[in-house]
């Protein structure tokens, strides 16, 4: 029987609700339960795929090709389980399903109404996720903040489900306690207001997670308890910490896991957070840095630097660095600055390794190509991710194969040498303006060529099968353009190695430049499959090369 834990947010957004959900999930898993997590996003978009990463943050991709919120990535990283389309709900998705059903006459001629038909659709989706994963616990993160219009129907769904299954539902409120400088004291009033707003929706929280700059003290816990109607032991302190991976350990110090189980009348089947605690220790004690430069464009917004757009890349770098007991130092390098001032490329020598991550559209592309060329010539370890692979091919075609006008049709639709082109089926979709959810998405197989850096990286992990001495792995994709097979021969003749091929369609998935400390670029996104306790093989190999003294 599945139990459902709804997690809502109070006071303001951006206080780490997703990570809190992921952390609770990890704790319950460590106690011997099967756990899954569902994210509900209030926007009308059917999925996150059509949103600008600067505005929304990274678009995470699941094995089954769902373009979803970055929180799904957090769930995967903390739980070390693959999520799927069932784990992601949006208002758009809910309404689309209800309207389609109405069109198919599935409501038997009755009037279809916002309440209860929309909350019922939400409930049925949550239950489907529970069934699909056979989970003992389903955590449901309600996007947005209590008190706003947008998520009201999701709170309504939670309230209705509680009415149906009173013993199987728990409510958690993640709230923020400010410590205004001029007052110098932690204030609980916004939290009290948030609880009132939740009460207005017919919901009483069972547990309150108090996010704050510093830990909550006893007087604050007592005050929240009195005014918000929860036991002091159910007011959990969640202060700012250095690494998000510390949160499950911190929650456990407050006995959160057992408090939750007790409310359901359950007991831990085992207790095993050891490997996680070990990871936290490494994170805290790793001193020697590994300096990685990320050449991108989705991080400058006004006066702020936003790293959310590349969260999986950042986490993957961290996982691999910690594996080698190094302290990851990630530097943001604006691609366009190399276009304005090529002299600036020299700064790349300061880093142990360079990454060009995924991206869309023209802006910054030429700067990235220059940076990649600099890494190739100066033997700086390079890892290209999706766009980072396509641009590595363009750079090689232009500067090694002499195809000066090589480009991708994404940037120059009728260029002389379209080394990166669009597949015919994609061309048709673009003509019909069918953009949403139509890229090459999700898991595809990739056959790795023996005696390549990639082969050495993957073996023995992640091998799904070993056929005739070669290796087949499965990786996640999100792209429309491909290496144009017509140029494969000229690229190979000049030394580029096609290290990974999708066997089904004969598409190039990984390229390498040999006689280089590490120059590997993939059409897929390895970062989506990196986990804190199981770093991705390509990131591991990249960091290994970056910290190696051999090439310096
Ligand atoms: N814009 C490129 C494409 O669509 C690369 C996409 C990406 O980096 N995710 O193929």
Structure, explained:
A hairpin with a 2-residue loop joins strand 11 and strand 12 (304-305). The strands form five sheets. Strands 13-10-14-15-24-23-22-18-20-19 form a ten-stranded mixed beta sheet, with helices on both faces. It has a seven-stranded parallel beta sheet with strand order 5-2-6-1-7-8-9, sandwiched between helices. By secondary structure, it is α/β, with parallel strands linked by helices. It has 19 helices and 24 strands. It starts with a strand and ends in a 5-residue tail after the last helix. It folds into two domains: 3-279, P-loop containing nucleotide triphosphate hydrolases (Rossmann fold, 3-Layer(aba) Sandwich); 287-547, Class I glutamine amidotransferase (GATase) domain (Rossmann fold). It is globular and about 75 Å long. The model has no long low-confidence stretch (mean pLDDT 93). Bound molecules: glutamine (GLN). Residues 358-360, 386-387, 390, 410, 478-481 line the site of glutamine (GLN).
């Amino acid at each position: 029987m599945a139990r459902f834990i709804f997690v809502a947010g109070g006071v303001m957004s951006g206080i780490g609700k997703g990570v809190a959900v992921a952390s609770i999930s990890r704790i319950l898993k460590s106690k011997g339960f099967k756990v899954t997590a569902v994210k509900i996003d209030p926007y009308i978009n059917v999925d996150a795929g059509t949103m600008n990463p600067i505005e929304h943050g990274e678009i995470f991709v699941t094995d089954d090709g769902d373009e979803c919120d970055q929180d799904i990535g957090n769930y995967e990283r903390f739980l070390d389980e693959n999520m799927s389309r069932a784990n992601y709900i949006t208002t758009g998705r809910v309404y689309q399903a209800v309207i389609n059903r109405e069109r198919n006459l599935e409501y038997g001629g009755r009037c279809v109404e916002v309440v209860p038909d929309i909350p019922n659709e939400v409930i049925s989706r949550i239950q489907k996720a529970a069934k699909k994963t056979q989970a003992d616990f389903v955590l449901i993160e309600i996007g947005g903040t209590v008190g706003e219009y947008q998520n009201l129907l999701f709170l309504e769904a939670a309230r209705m489900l509680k009415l149906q299954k009173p013993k199987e539902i728990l409510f958690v409120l993640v709230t923020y306690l400010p410590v205004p400088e001029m007052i110098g004291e932690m204030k609980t009033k916004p939290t009290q207001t948030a609880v009132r707003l939740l009460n207005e929706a017919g919901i009483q929280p069972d547990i309150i997670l108090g996010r704050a700059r510093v830990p909550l003290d006893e007087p604050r816990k007592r005050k929240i308890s009195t005014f918000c109607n929860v036991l002091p032991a159910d007011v959990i302190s969640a202060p700012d910490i250095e690494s998000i991976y510390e949160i499950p350990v911190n929650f456990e110090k407050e006995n959160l896991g057992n408090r939750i189980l007790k409310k359901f009348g359950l007991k831990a089947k085992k207790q095993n957070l050891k490997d996680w605690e070990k990871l936290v220790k490494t994170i805290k004690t790793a001193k020697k840095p590994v300096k990685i430069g990320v050449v991108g464009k989705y991080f400058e917004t006004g006066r702020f630097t936003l790293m959310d757009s590349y969260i999986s890349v950042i986490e993957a770098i961290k996982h691999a660095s910690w594996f080698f007991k190094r302290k990851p130092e990630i530097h943001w390098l604006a691609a366009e600055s190399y276009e304005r001032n090529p002299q600036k490329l020299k700064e790349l020598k300061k880093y142990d390794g360079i990454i060009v991550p995924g991206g869309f559209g023209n802006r910054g592309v030429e700067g990235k190509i220059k940076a990649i060329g600099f890494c190739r010539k100066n033997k700086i370890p390079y890892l290209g991710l999706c766009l980072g692979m396509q641009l590595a091919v363009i750079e090689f075609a232009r500067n090694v194969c002499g195809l000066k006008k090589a480009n991708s049709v994404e940037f120059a639709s009728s260029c002389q040498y379209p080394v990166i082109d669009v597949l015919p089926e994609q061309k048709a979709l673009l003509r019909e303006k069918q953009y949403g959810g139509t890229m090459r998405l999700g898991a595809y197989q990739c056959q790795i060529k023996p005696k390549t850096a990639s082969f050495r990286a993957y073996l023995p992990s992640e091998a799904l099968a070993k056929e005739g001495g070669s290796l087949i792995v499965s990786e996640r994709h999100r792209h429309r353009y491909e290496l144009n097979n017509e140029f494969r021969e000229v690229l190979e003749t000049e030394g580029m190695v096609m290290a990974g091929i999708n066997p089904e369609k004969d598409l190039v998935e990984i390229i390498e430049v040999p006689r280089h400390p590490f120059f590997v670029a993939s059409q897929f996104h390895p970062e989506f499959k990196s986990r804190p306790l199981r770093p991705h093989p390509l990131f591991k190999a990249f960091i290994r090369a970056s910290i190696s003294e051999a090439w310096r």
